[in-house]
DNA sequence: TTTGTTAATGCAATTGAATTGCAATAATAA
DNA sequence: TTATTATTGCAATTCAATTGCATTAACAAA
């Protein structure tokens, strides 16, 4: 009896599923569930999903966290090492296909990656 | 008469100069200037340096901003497009030599880059 | 050197995303 | 059905960062 299935979790999961390669901010999700649950619940559900490895979390240079379903990850093999993109005009964040490949200097051990490119998307450029 | 030279600015500039490839957080700098100036002044000086292009600013995945002197930039050519590294143990942040090279999908325009690798540095690994 | 303008500063108050404490609620194992 | 305890809502709190405003001081002009 570790985690329980609840309406709140299912609702948020559905929202994330429907936005596969477009990470959503806490605020984005709050708006979509407005009235259905408390904002603190959104925080806690997102954090539990993240802890359990169902979603990945990126900190964008607007200072907000964005969350997206893990796509090419398996329980035993997480690799959230792709770039993300944020549009300065429409604010949308996207997962890019390209993986981050860094040649670290000797002795450094890589644990995780948080790479964000900021600019203008095709619709706004 | 745009910007004025003040003791506060000179002090902070000296600190950043002495820490060339090791970006410092607001908090780091505050400690070094403790008693000499107000913390709000530190914020404002750092922001003015950043606006004027003297330093670059990165948001690390600990949620804090880190600042470092621009090294290979000229007035007309800024390129803060290198990776950064943060050690999970000693918390130190470093500028890496390697530049970020992303092949953006068609139509996307890149403006800036905020790429951080998190892991363990040689001393802590 | 003196003076006037206004950028810079200190201090207190405020913002806003994120977190925490706690009592009430509800999922689920027994 | 019942007992256990994870989950939720609500209020309060945290903490870095920002803002307002009166005071100070840099520096251009006289
Ligand atoms: Mn994943
Ligand atoms: Mn630079
Ligand atoms: Zn856009
Ligand atoms: Zn270290």
UniProtKB/TrEMBL annotation, chains A, B:
Binding site for Zn(2+): 87, 90, 121, 124
Cofactor: Zn(2+); Mn(2+); Fe(2+)
Record key words, sorted: Iron, Metal-binding, Zinc
GO biological process: negative regulation of DNA-templated transcription; regulation of secondary metabolite biosynthetic process
Listed InterPro entries: FUR, WH-like_DNA-bd_sf, WH_DNA-bd_sf
One GO molecular-function entry: DNA-binding transcription factor activity
Protein name: Transcriptional regulator
Provenance organism: Flavilitoribacter nigricans (strain ATCC 23147 / DSM 23189 / NBRC 102662 / NCIMB 1420 / SS-2) (Lewinella nigricans)
């Amino acid at each position: 009896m570790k985690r329980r299935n609840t309406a709140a979790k299912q609702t948020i999961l559905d929202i994330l599923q429907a936005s596969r390669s477009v990470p959503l901010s806490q605020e984005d999700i709050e708006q979509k569930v407005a009235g259905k649950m408390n904002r603190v619940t959104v925080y806690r559900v997102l954090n539990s999903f993240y802890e359990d490895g169902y979603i990945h979390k990126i900190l964008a240079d607007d200072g907000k966290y964005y969350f997206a379903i893990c796509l090419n990850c398996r329980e035993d093999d997480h690799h959230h090492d792709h770039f993300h993109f944020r549009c300065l005009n429409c604010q949308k964040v996207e997962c890019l296909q390209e993986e981050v490949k860094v040649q670290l200097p000797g002795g450094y051990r890589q644990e995780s990656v948080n790479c964000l490119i900021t600019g203008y998307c095709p619709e706004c450029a």
